[in-house]
Amino acid sequence: MNDLNKLKYFKWSLGDRYDGWRVRKVDAVFSVIPYFLRTRIDAQNFFEEKLPIDEIEAFIRKHKDEIPDLSIMHVVMASLVRLISQRPHLNRFVIWNKIFARNHVNFSIAVKRSLSDNGEETLIKPFFMPSDTLQDIVRKTKLELDNNQKTGQQNSSDTISKVLGLLPEFLLRFVVFMLLHMDKVGIMPKFINKASPWHSSIFLTNIGSIGVESIYHHLYEFGTCSMFCAMGKKSKEFVLDKEAQVKPLKSILLKFVMDERICDGFYYASSMRLLNKILSNPEVLLLPPENVNIDEGVGKPLLKSN
Known about the structure:
The protein is α+β, with helices and mostly antiparallel strands. The chain contains eight helices and eleven strands.
């Protein structure tokens, strides 16, 4: 894992992991909940947001020359990174009944190398900083795509999957069992963590790009991902405006599945309202945030938020 992509807000303390700091300052209820809701499947919350895209598409047309590869997905990604910069609890994860604050921001994104039923699929994991602008998001994502887009090309995730697939069943069960338990105590090899799509801030899938409506996708038990976001296809409907006039409205549906153990419902609801506010004014993504909030549950910060 690239140290340049780690957030150096806190010193390492006993009980921390190489991919996250232990959250020690938390309400008593939240310190107990992970012992009762022991899996992410137990703790899944579902939320959807209908995203009007007329203004976003106008924004993309306005900035297509300065940001040539800009798409709606990039705007959504940049908005989520900006959201994490202001609402750091969303970047927490629960493992082995303990809550941790992730020390990096990254996305897992499923990518088709060719658009056919038998086309190769791979996963990319771009890393971001909370202070990144929309331009940074587009550039870093494009770099990952360019490095993984060619048919027949293999990244670390592909290589590990291929090696595991060659193992006999009894040995594969043992290896997976060991990886699961090593991850629980934070000693899983770092190269596995770096390659694993299940160790990320957000798992994002843009199934709308193949003409499919958004779905609620379950969270994974293996790994540390606490949020899954699925983007659906563009749709058009007719609505009444403030003057009671019928007008067309284009939108896409974002569906989220989230681990309720990392923060309470009010925090989630406030975060989704903020996400809606950011998406309704994407111009703010062209500049870094005025400040980056850090997770106060970890302890005394090494650095002040910037």
